[in-house]
Amino acid sequence: MAYKNDKTKNRRRYKSRYRSAHNYKQKRSSSQTKAAVLVSVLTFLVIASLVIVFTFGDSIFTTLDGVLTNMTQTEAPTQAPAPTEKPTEKPTEKPTEAPAIQEDQFMQLLEQCGLELKHIKVNQMVFVDADEENLTCKVYCYEKGDDGVFTQAIGPFDGYIGADGIDKMVSPYESKTPTGLFRIEYTFGTKPDPGTLFEYSQFTTEDRWITDPNSINYNRWVTGTDYQDWETSQWLYEYTLSYPYAIVFEYNRDPVDKAQGCAKFIHVSDTPTKGGIGISENDILTMLYWLNPNSKPYVAISK
């Protein structure tokens, strides 16, 4: 068969393949068959599903509910528990330990110095019980034990106070012993270190204690300075009788008040002093062996 052109040829082939009575009926019959099968299958599945649901519905629902509940509990993030209200009742307080019972004499010395037991935070205490009328004193040395009780460790020692008596306010020109509570700073003397645990220095020819209130070094220990602005001082190495050994306590030291006295030590003397505490050389040696810087000792001088 002859064709006018390729387009006509293709058209005729298309028509001959799908427009013929035989092919059209064949295609239509196949499609209908597939549709009928699909409808039958779907109908069967729907009917089977309905039968299963009506027959086993309760069991299926119960099973699914349990599975979903377990999944929710497992996967759900842990929530912080709701805050509970504070109890209205006060918590039981830990019973406080009863304070250690101190010796009567120790408590009496505290009272004479105007102190209370709660003020004492150290393990060694030196009490100076002054007799202003006779210019004498008793020196007591107490140490705190592991049970918190202060007991007399050494002494008491007989001693002397200042020739002008005792007072809280002492001027630079009075031979008075100051009252109060003072920390022990260090020790020194004209003799070598006797073996004390405290810091100790032996005097040299260049050591002075400045007693001039107009000096910037008033009430200080200076050594080998080329600058001198004082008119009065104690040339320490010359005080062989008073300062073979001496204990420096923190009176008018930091800051220095030029209206207050100076050079107040526990030292050696057998007569009323210029304001320090005078005891025998043997007694001061005993104190030096006893004093311990780790115990942070203080001197309390009674009113």
Write up what this structure looks like.
With 303 residues, the protein is of the alpha/beta class. It has four helices and 14 strands. It has helices at 6-18, 21-75, 104-112, 281-290, and strands spanning 124-131, 136-144, 150-160, 166-167, 177-178, 180-189, 200-202, 207-210, 221-223, 233-235, 246-249, 265-268, 277-279, 298-301. The strands form three sheets. Strands 1, 2, 3, 6, 7, 11, 12, 13 and 14 form a nine-stranded mixed sheet that branches. The longest helix is centred in the first third of the chain and has 55 residues, at 21-75. It is rod-shaped and about 140 Å long. The N and C termini lie far apart (150 Å). 25% of the residues are buried.
Summarize the structure.
The protein is an alpha/beta fold and 303 residues long. The protein has helices spanning 6-18, 21-75, 104-112, 281-290, and strands at 124-131, 136-144, 150-160, 166-167, 177-178, 180-189, 200-202, 207-210, 221-223, 233-235, 246-249, 265-268, 277-279, 298-301.
